[in-house]
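One-letter codes give the sequence; the fold follows as C-alpha cells. An example follows:
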Amino acid sequence: EGIEASLKRLQLDYVDLLFCHRPDPLTPTETVVRSMTEIVRSGLATAWGTSEWSAQQFTEAYWIATMKGLEPPQFEQPQYNMLKRDRVETEYHPLYNHPYDMGTTIWSPLASGILTGKYNNGIPKGSRLMQNGYEFLVEKLKKIKDDGSIEKIRNLDDYANSKFGCNLTKLALAWCVKNKNVSTVLLGITNSEQLLENLDSIHLVEKLTNKHMEEINNILENKPEPYFGYG
C-alpha cells in the first residue's frame, strides 16, 4: 500500500531503488525480506536496500534471501562525513566485497551544514539551527565545539583554500566521493546556486591525491582503526 501510494503521488509506474528506512525491531527480518521481494518481483521497484541498518542486520537479510530464493538487499543508506566515519569505513567493510557487493547512498555529507564552516563563529540568523525542530542540531553543534572539532573545521577550511582555492563545502563533498565504497552522495540544497556549487565538487575529486587524504586525516585525527588490520 505504501509503495503504490508513493508511485501514485510521483506519477510513476515504478522506482529504481526502494529503501527500508531504519530496521523494525518488531518485525521479523524474513517478513521484511519477503515483502521487499514481492515489491521487486511485481515490478514496482527494480531493487531494494536498507537505511541505517547495522552490518549484522544487513547480513541477516542477505542470507535469509539467499537461502529462501528471495531478493537480497543490494545497498545501504548510512550517514557519512568527515566527522562520522566508523560505520562506513569499518563496520561495513566486509559488505563491499563478494558475495554482498553492497553499494552505499550516504546522507549528511556536510554534517547538517556544520562542515560548510558557517557555524564556526556561532549560529547565523536564518540558518537551519534557528528553526523550531532542530534543537538536536544545536546540541550536536555544542558537542562539536566542546570536543575541539570546530578548530579542526577551521583548519580544514584553510586547507581547502590554500591547496585547492575552494571552500570547505566542496572539499567535504569531494572527500566523501573519493571513498571508493561510496556509490552515491545525497545533497541537501535550498536553491539552484547551491546545487551547482555542490555539483562542482566532482571536479575536485580527481585532484585529491593519497597525500592530500593523509593530510586531511592528520587534521581530523579521527581515522577509524582498520577492519581486522585491513584497509
